[in-house]
Amino acid sequence: MSYASAQTFKTHSNVNADSPGRDNYVAQNTAVFERDLTPEVSWQLLNSGAAVLVDIRTPEERKTFGYVEQSALVPWLTGSNKIRNPRFFLELSKVVDKQQQVILLCQTGKRSADAVLAALKAGYAQAYGVQGGIEGARHLPWLKTA
Question: Model-level pTM?
Answer without folding.
Answer: 0.78
